[in-house]
Amino acid sequence: MNIRNFCIIAHIDHGKSTLADRMIEMTGTLQKREMKEQLLDTMDLERERGITIKLQPVRMYFNEHQLNLIDTPGHTDFRYEVSRSLAACEGAILLVDASQGIQAQTLAVLYMAMEHDLTIIPVLNKIDLPAADPERVSDEVVKLLGCDRNAILRISAKDGTGVNDVLQAVIDRIPCPTSTQHSSSDVARALIFDAVMDPYRGTVAYVRMMNGSIKKGQKIYLLGTKTAHEAIDIGHFAPKYVSDGKLSEGEIGYIVTGGKDVNHVRTGDTIASNEGVSPLPGYKVVQPMVYAGVYPSEADGYPDLRDALEKLSLNDAALVTEPERNAALGNGFRCGFLGLLHMDIIQERLEREYDCDLVITAPSVRYEVKLSVKNPAEIVRSSLLKEDEPDTAIISNPADFPDPTYIEEVREPWVKLEVVCRNEDIGAAMKLVTDRRGIQQSMEYLDEERVVLHFEVPLQGIVLDFFDKLKSSTAGYGSMSYDPIGNRVGDLVKLQILLLGEPADALSTIVHRSEAHSVGAIVCKKLKEVLPKAQYQIPIQAAIGAKVVARETLSAFRKDVTGYLYGGDVTRKQKLLKKQKKGKKRLKQMGKVTLTQDAFLSVLKRD
Q1: What pLDDT sits at residue 182?
Q2: CA atoms in the 13 A half-sphere facing the CB of 358
Q3: 358 and 390 share a domain?
Q4: Which of 173, 268, 404, 555 could be stapled to 283 by a disulfide with Cβ–Cβ 3.0 to 4.6 Å?
Q5: Mean confidence (pLDDT) of the chain
């Protein structure tokens, strides 16, 4: 079988999309006039930011072989896109920048590829750069993979040097697809590794054919959602849709199901030609790392936001949503993300592609709270309680955090963090992590200049601004990746923000008791800068239960009510000031504080 399925994996900005461009150009998949930079980055957001967000497949032909390539993202927040791509392939090109060398995300995606038993082709990119040091980086790759030095290809994806050798290596080294075990030889099964909603043709499934073949017009069954559809159109990516009429075993392509319900076609599901067939293993369910409330700025925008989130969750399997209500912001959704960049991208996609006007609350991670009462449903909503531990609640919204008197223990998520940096940045990186309650585990040198630091750290400490701080403290040379390692007990408290003495639930956060005073002082100071002034003083307080740990006061507008007086007895002036004071007191009693998006951002960025 002359088919090869492979993907390109690498750290951020090591040249994955550029290499994909050169491959498309050299195989003649598109004519030269159709080519443009980062061709497979089809979203405006990807092109503006210069990053890949979505996996993108393309079929090419080279030396009488069909090559199916999946271009993958490099950022740690989109690693789920990478894992789905790996499950549809037999091999991977590990791309390493010849000047930067191995970075944290290079290690993370390599371990993923090894878990899937993929054939790895090591490739050094950007050898044309003045700062390139292919000999040093080759030593790093040999040490990491244990491969032969001659097996490492050296290329420049920008000018096309050595790209033909990479294409030939894909044919020579990566095995052709093999059929998976199934009950009957005439049953077709395909794995859905991505799906999109086409406004005209319904849901389109991106599939890898595992067994048999599916033809256009054939009846198909989705085994996970137990629904039946007709294959309205079938074809491959070049990189646009090209209709074929049939997808055979081992091929990667698309199937237009025509389904109008976004919940019917799910990533990881199996498409089969018969009912009652055993499904493919699919993917393990992804666990979000960060949760935030997403609300429409106007109440009548709720239905549009709901529809937009449904369509986005079809295309982004890592996005988790559930409805929630907030006293200050009305009806909205509690959304789970893989990280802050993922959250930022979803927000921009909702605003651009679906024209939603949003307010997003401060992000939080997921905590497990063990309660010391006989009937926990009296303290928290029964929907928050764990099925296997009925006395433990899963809290992702600080507003749901129960009263401390009912809490036996709080468990927070921890992660295994890997930081790659220069020798001279070790101290700065260690201080940064230990300030966030991190524990150093080990350290190993990639070469004389660069080192990998292994830590265990609470997830809450690294999701907000850790990446930015790491880049600035290591002069841009530091990189990181992390993986969850489970929950651990911690002394955690709910830090409540009070405005005019009233709790603002949307601004509350869960912090470690040792950080409560410093975090509270920073948040109060930030809110003082961004909240709009009123005709009366606004006290801004941070409190743990009944204990206030920080306070700022936003001064009132001062209207000069005595400005028109031109003399006379002083009692005239005092009378007017007294009248103004009474008016401000009455206003304060019925006054409300308007929460802006800047207020939520101030909680987010605690500099």
Answers
A1: 47
A2: 26
A3: no
A4: 268
A5: 82
Which amino acid appears at position 169 of this protein? A
Which domain covers residue 341, as residue numbers?
290-363
> Counting Cβ atoms within 10 Å, is residue 197 exposed (0-12), middle (13-18) or buried (19+)?
middle
Tell how strand 270-272 and strand 320-326 pair up: unpaired
Cα–Cα distance for residue pair 400/403, rounded to 1 Å: 9
Identify the three-state secondary structure at position 75: coil
Coil vs helix vs strand at 226: coil
- The Cα 46–Cα 56 span in angstroms is 12
Query: CATH number of the domain that 248 lies in?
Result: 2.40.30.10
* The pLDDT of residue 371: 87
pLDDT (0 to 100) of residue 450: 84
Residues 67, 251: Cα–Cα separation, whole Å: 9
Q: How many CA atoms lie within 13 A of 311 on its CB side?
A: 16
Domain total of the chain: 5
Kind of pairing, strands 233-237 and 290-296?
unpaired
Residues of the chain by 3-state class (helix, strand, coil), percent to 5? 30, 30, 35
Same-domain status, 485 and 509: no
Inter-residue contact 538 to 553 (CB < 8 Å): yes
Based on the domain organization, do 222 and 158 belong to the same domain? Answer: no
CATH number at residue 411: 3.30.70.240
Same domain, 442 and 471: yes
The two beta strands, 320-326 and 358-360, are: unpaired
49 shares a domain with 73: yes
Q: Count the neighbouring beta carbons within 10 Å of the beta carbon of residue 355.
A: 10
Do 62 and 165 lie in one domain? The reply is yes
Angle of CA points 43, 599, 580, to nearest 5°: 145
Backbone dihedral angles phi then psi of residue 34, each to the nearest 5 degrees: -85, -10
- Report pLDDT for 595: 65
Amino acid, res. 431: K
Q: What are phi and psi of 406, to 5 degrees?
A: -95, 0
pLDDT value, residue 551? 92
User: What spatial distance separates the first Cα and last Cα of the chain, rounded to whole Å?
Assistant: 58
Quick one: pLDDT at residue 93? 92
- The dihedral sign for the CA sequence 555, 559, 565, 566: positive
Residues 260 and 383 in one domain: no
How far is it, in rounded angstroms, from Cα 521 to Cα 524?
5
The pTM assigned to this predicted structure is: 0.74
426 and 554 in a common domain: no
Q: Quick check: 502 and 441 in contact, CB under 8 A? A: no
pLDDT digits (tens, 9 = 90+) for 172-201: 999 888 765 444 456 888 888 888 877 788
CB-CB contact of 568 with 330 (8 Å): no
Give the Cα separation of 337 and 333 in Å (integer). 12
Report residue 561 as tokens. 């009510």
| Residue 81 to residue 251: CA distance in whole angstroms | 19
Residue 192 · residue 266 · CB < 8 Å:
yes
Q: Extract the residue ranges of the chain whose pLDDT is less than 50.
A: 181-184, 589
Give a three-class secondary structure readout of 271-303.
EECCCCCCCCCCCCCCCCCEEEEEEECCHHHHH
Per the rule left: phi > 0, alpha: psi between -120 and 50, beta: everything else, 389 is: beta
